[in-house]
Amino acid sequence: MLKLKRIGIDTYRDNVAFIARCCTPYRPEEFQAFRKIEVIHDGNRLLASLLIVDDETIVGRNELGLSEQAFKRIQKPEGTLVQLAPAIPPRSLDHVRSKIHGHTLDESQINDIIGDIATHRYSEMEIAAFLISSAGFMTTDEMLALTRAMAGAGNQLNWDAPVVVDKHCIGGIPGNRTSMIVVPIVAAHGLPMPKSSSRAITSPAGTADTMEVLAKVDLTMEEMREVVKECNGCLVWGGHVNLSPADDIMIAVERPLAIDTREQMVASILSKKIAAGSTHLVVDLPLGPSAKVRSHEDALRLRKLFEYISDQVGLHIEVSVTDGSQPVGRGIGPVLEARDAMAVLRREPGAPMDLKEKSLRLAGQILEFDKSLRGGKGYDRACELLESGEALTVMERIISAQGRSQKEYALGTLIHDVATEADGVVTAIDCYRMARIARLAGAPLDKGAGIDLFKKVGDPVEAGEALYRIYACVESDFQFARSMAGEANGYAIGAGL
């Protein structure tokens, strides 16, 4: 037996165990031939990579150290006695090898793979092998099986209501924080909208990051239910309620490898919505030269994939192709995006009109799911709920119910204005580059970091006039962002009329 010891090392998603080279109960050299070990306690097993330590002040000869992630997952206190055993590779890896060799997988094989991924039995290399082999080709039956398997791997919510609505944007457009406006509008009408959102992985902010400026987002399932019961809606972090956990794990591997196939995207999004208990869904599909979807043909194909899978799983879906030619709103980064969303809800004179109009259109589409509204009246009803202040009242109620943020987040104190060198008119804004600059500035890790846009497409500019302002909280981030903006600021300026 070895005594558990918590090692304060962040190993991201990987389970890592540490054993002393002078370990008494085991000979560490015997485990070096195995890539992983199993940590065993009362019949429960945790799969982990093993590292051998020479410093006994880190791990003693009768101890087994676990990284922060592994320690949380084993859910046992320090000092608990555990045993070790060589890990048996997951049998589902045979299915991955089959996929690599060009074979089509059936539903049971995909279930096996997703089950092992969700329980952290795969290394990142093995996950990457599955993702890349699937990116090469995936049939519609495989895509359907993947969606169902991911939806069934974690918690599933049931709201005991005939219509439970949701919306999702496929991403890629900075500042597109419509959910924080749509949810209170729809909830004010009376339709339940339990919105579970993601945190940013490679973008400057996710909805959860931005909502966290205003309220607590890491709610338990029971807390989430209570908020929805009280307010008809919520804006929470989906990762905390363990919806489609295999999807979160795979996304973390997909992003660095730039794997973003349409089939995997559809399975990812819809698995989350099925697990969240949604019955009706609006998908925001931005189309633009620097968006994820850049042609009408690609948009049509993606819409058909969404519709096919939704039909098979009994989810009513509407896909809305929207303008993805430039960022939405003015702010890019949590504090700035929260400012924009609340400005729209408060009906402030300077609120960004593009964010307001897009949110009203999406909210109107969702309200059309209510059979009591006559066709085409959803948009009018959305405008009414926003302009009357009812949506703002509901948003304030949601913030209070989730737990108002106890921290006052301020904008970064390191500021740099990026100016144009020529007179003319803004003809294009590169969404991808703007997101990268904001990310380098420190967003979303520093909620006050990001970019405040002064000019949008169609606006006239004069040489020396500021296009946008960079905010940062840390000097190194500030210099990184300034350097990238100096190389190319992301704006195209054309001749004026």
Topology, pairings included?
Elements: E1 2-6, E2 16-20, H1 28-31, E3 36-41, E4 44-53, E5 63-66, H2 68-74, E6 81-86, H3 93-100, H4 107-118, H5 124-136, H6 140-152, E7 165-169, H7 179-189, E8 193-197, H8 207-211, H9 221-231, E9 233-237, H10 245-257, H11 262-275, E10 280-287, H12 296-313, E11 316-323, E12 331-332, H13 334-345, H14 353-367, H15 378-387, H16 390-402, E13 414-419, E14 424-429, H17 431-440, E15 450-453, E16 460-461, E17 466-472, H18 475-487, E18 491-494
Parallel strand pairs: 1-5, 2-4, 7-10, 8-9, 10-11
Antiparallel strand pairs: 1-6, 2-5, 3-4, 3-6, 12-15, 13-17, 14-16, 14-18, 15-17
Helix pairs in contact: 3-5, 4-6, 4-10, 5-10, 6-11, 6-12, 7-14, 7-15, 7-16, 9-16, 11-12, 14-15, 17-18
Q: How would you sum up this structure, described in words?
A:
With 497 residues, this protein is α/β, with parallel strands linked by helices. It has four domains: 85 residues, Barwin-like endoglucanases (Beta Barrel); 45 residues, no CATH class; 223 residues, Nucleoside phosphorylase/phosphoribosyltransferase catalytic domain (Pyrimidine Nucleoside Phosphorylase, Chain A, domain 2); 81 residues, Pyrimidine nucleoside phosphorylase-like, C-terminal domain (Aldehyde Oxidoreductase, domain 3). Helices cover 41% and strands 20% of the residues. The strands form five sheets. The chain has a six-stranded mixed beta barrel with strand order 1-5-2-4-3-6. The relative contact order is 0.11.
